[in-house]
Design brief:
With about 400 residues, the protein is mostly helical. The chain is built from 20 helices and no strands.
Length: about 400
């Protein structure tokens, strides 16, 4: 084997390994951490409720069964084929590019088509490597990211030639390094950005609708905490409206988008509340700390507690009892909220009750309760240290 061949092989190995390192790091360290992050948050009771809500025919009932179900649905085995395909693509493209670079005179103006191809691949390589390094650092890699990286490398040549032709570069017989740099710059853009540009460019001569503004993204970004990139990731997973987000499986969505489970759960709760209010009303609802169904459930429980006591007293022929401080605060909040919304208290209470009694609110409430359980009273504590609030609540 000649020195040139050795140089090509060594260079190919070095260049091709770089985007594979963050992928391997995630599979070895990031993926187990994400699994533990989700599985450890669920008590057996919460797991049972989750199964009833989203997978009623599944057999897992406890943490061990839930972990096995997690491996079955989202295990590392699902990465095998995408990673192998990506590795084959990046190694093949790298070998071809390195071979051409070492065997041709870059100072000449000949073989301009090959130069554009090399520049296009180099730009795509830069973007794919940077994207995978960033996602591995954020512990946010899913199989679709690997597939998209493979696709980005495969379509980099058509992208480079199309943009070069559009810019008039290919019409010149002499392709220099400066003109070939255009293909590199285009290759370094994210795939979505290039596709948007191509759609807009083709829309004019073909008289097609070139509007790339997504109603779905605009709707989802109205939820607190959801930016345009996050909304685009949700749309990629088929979540295009607030209604879909409100009733989505938060575990599946957290895994497929690579985002934190608590964040997804909060966004789902916000989406559920937005179903019942318009854009102006939701600003008022937020000011009253009713962002998600969990907060609505807390308010509704306080209101329902007094309603039950009042109904029982009336049933006995007695006058309704006075409200305790918690029930008084809840009623005051309800009346102030109704006034700001321009509704009567009964209608507002009905809306809050619908949100609080929704099965998905009940599920989210139990999940939060399982993550932050109330501590049992210390039996060794002195009687003077025990407050009367827990006793009154349990009574």
């Amino acid at each position: 084997m000649s020195n040139m061949q050795n140089t090509v092989l060594i260079a190919t190995g070095i260049v091709a390994t770089l985007p594979l390192i963050p992928t391997g790091h995630f599979l070895l360290f990031g993926w187990p951490a994400r699994k533990e992050q989700i599985v450890s948050r669920f008590s057996d009771e919460a797991i049972g409720r989750y199964r009833q809500m989203f997978y009623p025919e599944s057999g897992f009932k406890d943490s061990e069964g839930f972990a096995e179900e997690y491996d079955l649905r989202y295990g590392r085995r699902l990465f095998v084929f995408p990673v192998l395909l990506f590795a084959a693509t990046v190694i093949g493209a790298t070998y071809w590019s390195v071979t051409w670079v070492f065997s041709h005179d870059w100072a000449s103006a000949s073989e301009g088509t090959a130069k554009i191809a090399i520049f296009s691949l180099a730009g795509a390589y830069v973007w794919v490597t940077f994207d995978l390094i960033l996602r591995a650092r954020q512990n946010d890699v899913v199989t679709s990211d690997i597939n998209r990286a493979t696709l980005r490398l495969l379509v980099s040549l058509p992208f480079g030639f199309a943009i070069s032709a559009f810019a008039g570069v290919l019409s010149d017989t002499a392709i220099t390094l400066s003109t070939g740099a255009l293909a590199f710059f285009v290759g370094a853009f994210p795939t979505d950005t290039v596709l948007k540009f191509m759609r807009r460019t083709a829309a004019i001569p073909l008289k097609l609708d070139g509007n790339t503004e997504s109603d779905s993204v605009q709707q989802l970004t109205k939820i607190d905490g959801i930016s345009v990139p996050i909304a685009e990731r949700l749309v990629d997973e088929g979540v295009k409206t607030n209604l879909q987000l409100a009733y989505a499986d938060p575990i599946t969505l957290a895994i497929k988008t690579g985002m934190d489970f608590s964040f997804i759960l909060d966004c789902c709760g916000q989406a559920l509340v937005r179903i019942y209010f318009d854009d102006d009303q939701i600003k008022v609802v937020r000011r009253f700390a009713l962002r998600t169904g969990v907060e609505a459930r807390s308010l509704n429980d306080a209101l329902a507690s007094y309603d039950a006591k009042a109904a029982a007293a009336i049933g006995r022929g007695a006058a309704p009892p006075p409200r305790n401080p918690m029930e008084t605060a809840a009623q005051t909040q309800l009346e102030a909220l109704a006034d700001k919304l321009g509704l009567d208290p009964f209608s507002t209470h009905f809306i809050i009750d619908q949100i609080a009694d929704d099965p998905y609110t009940d599920f989210a409430f139990e999940i939060w309760a399982s993550q932050y359980p109330k501590q049992a009273p210390d039996p060794t504590a002195a009687p003077a240290e025990t407050t009367s609030a827990p006793v009154a609540k349990s009574a």
